[in-house]
Amino acid sequence: MFDSITGSIKNAVNKIRHKDDVASLKKAIVELKKSLLKADVHHKTTKELITAIELETKRVGIGQDSFINALKLELTKVLTTEGNQGFVYSNTPPTTILMTGLQGSGKTTTTGKLANYLKQRNKKVLVAAGDLQRLAAVEQLKQIAAQVEVDIYFDDNQTDPIAIAKAAQEKAIKEHYDVLLVDTAGRLAIDEELMTQLKNVRDAIKVDEIFYVADSLTGHDATKTASSFKEQIGIDGVILSKYDGDTKGGVALSIASQVGVPLRFIGIGEKMPDLEVFIPDRIVSRLLGLGDIEGLAEKTSAVIDEKKAKAVAKKIKKGEFNFNDFLDQLAMMSKLGSMKSIIGMIPGLSQMAGPLKDMDFENSDEIKRIKALIGSMTEKERLQPSLINPSRKKRIAKGSGLSEVQINKILKQFKNASKMAKKLSSKGGMKGLQNMMS
Ligand code: GDP
């Protein structure tokens, strides 16, 4: 995420050599202008930004710190548009949101992510399969709804999206849903027919807000299409999808400044938990390579069950961590979303992490093997791995398709890891680790 803009902003900062050195500030500004334009920031936004940053740096007194602070201040200003942040609930539920966007933008996936986000916050959510344009969209939404365990309204015999929206809203009202998310048709490009259809759906039901899903990877086009949607059907918020793949990061600045509609969420991976509320100063912090610890804490607190975490910590201390606990921890990790998004939140790690960034933890061969192994264990064996004797090992090997050598290796690793965790969690554990490292 943002690797290129973060790097080039650093270069700009490094141009400033001495305090009150006007010439070096000029050089930094030129460098900054280049990096913003390269990052797909609209030329008007770039101009406004560099003017403001230069003025602010001079006002405070030229230096690297004041330049960085001016950057933070002005970038945050640009990203802060008037209007709502995150998700806003209507006073008359169900809060109904139309999910709009071009085909391939990530609209259907984002509908699922938003449903998941709301479900995690204890809301009763209904999604409506109203994208009758793209052949597989209804099927895709069915799968996603099942995955995140929210209800879905669909009608395989219906060809009219208005009828789907109306019936879904009736169901949502009758069955007291908190939120209804209506997926709508997309097109490869904006056309009359699409806009008319969206207007008709919008006017046929009570709609609280219209979200536009913009694909960050389309750069300047994302800004243009968001503007068209705003003019033609009126949008209340933009969700930037695929922000994880966008190393440039400037599209958020362009949309905020040129479209004038608040960015509400960002999509930061293909998985269902990979959606975050868009909070300007946190994005700026990541753009500058400073991480987002607050965001990380929020993310983990939504996913981690504190009671369970304490119980596991106790078990680790006593050396009783077992394979069931391990599966629980894995499930929790997968709720956190992709590794890339987590790494981007830890200051400095993004530059250091290298290949770790692209690691798909859940689908790695190692984790698959461990899951197969645990799947073939009895409940007793999971709770007490020391029970596993040679004859049990043979049975597990048969069931899991692993060789006994592989099983021995995993069991040994597990044992060592439990021992290490026990040591670290005991008093003076960290000291012990430090000694070991040194
Ligand atoms: P739709 O035609 O707009 O409904 O598009 P889809 O929801 O089918 O998404 C198109 C592709 O983009 C799919 O392969 C998604 O997995 C992928 N996608 C959606 N959002 C994100 C995101 O935030 N990050 C990444 N990396 N991929 C995404």
Uncertain runs: none
**Rg estimate, integer Å:** 25 Å
Question: What's the CATH topology name of the largest domain?
Answer: Rossmann fold
> Which CATH architecture of the largest domain is right?
3-Layer(aba) Sandwich
Helix content: 55-70%
Based on Cα principal axes, name the global outline: flat
The end-to-end span amounts to: 33 Å
> Roughly what is the average pLDDT, rounded to an integer?
87
Compressed to H and E, one letter per element, the order equals HHHHEHEHEHEHEHEHEEHHHHHHHHHHH
- What would CATH call the homologous superfamily of the largest domain? P-loop containing nucleotide triphosphate hydrolases
Are any ligands bound, and if so which? guanosine-5'-diphosphate
Number of domains: 3
Biggest pleated-sheet summary: 8 strands, mixed
What is the number of helices?
Answer: 21
Report the β-strand fraction as a percent range: 5-15%
Secondary-structure class: alpha/beta
Can you describe what's shown?
- With 438 residues, the protein is of the alpha/beta class.
- The protein has three domains: 3-79, SRP54, nucleotide-binding domain (Four Helix Bundle (Hemerythrin (Met), subunit A)), CATH 1.20.120.140; 95-213 and 223-243, P-loop containing nucleotide triphosphate hydrolases (Rossmann fold), CATH 3.40.50.300; 303-437, Signal recognition particle, SRP54 subunit, M-domain (434 Repressor (Amino-terminal Domain)), CATH 1.10.260.
- It is built from 21 helices and eight strands.
- An eight-stranded mixed sheet has the order 3-2-4-1-5-6-7-8, with helices on both faces.
- It starts with a helix and ends with a helix.
- Bound molecules: guanosine-5'-diphosphate.
- Guanosine-5'-diphosphate (GDP) is lined by residues 101, 103-110, 134, 137, 186, 241-242, 244-245, 267-270, 274.
